[in-house]
Amino acid sequence: MQRRYGVGVSKKPAKGSPEMKAKMADLRAKRREGSFRL
Q1: Whole-angstrom Cα distance, residue 23 to residue 25?
Q2: Tens digits of residue pLDDT in 8-32
Q3: Rg (CA), the chain
């Protein structure tokens, strides 16, 4: 878990960054499907 720059994985992606937008879109899609769990 020490890798900072994994494939599309980062501890704190910058707000407004493509990675963050993709992550939020993915979360929203999962939540819409009903398969999103905390």
Answers
A1: 5
A2: 555 565 667 787 788 888 888 877 7
A3: 11
| Cα–chain center distance at 27 | 7
C-alpha angle 1/13/9, rounded to 5°? Answer: 40
CA 5, CA 14: separation in Å to the nearest integer? Answer: 13
DSSP string spanning the chain? Answer: ---SS-SS--SSPPTTSHHHHHHHHHHHHHHHHT----
Residue 28 CB contacts under 8 Å (≥ 6 apart), including other chains:
none
- Model-level pTM? 0.38
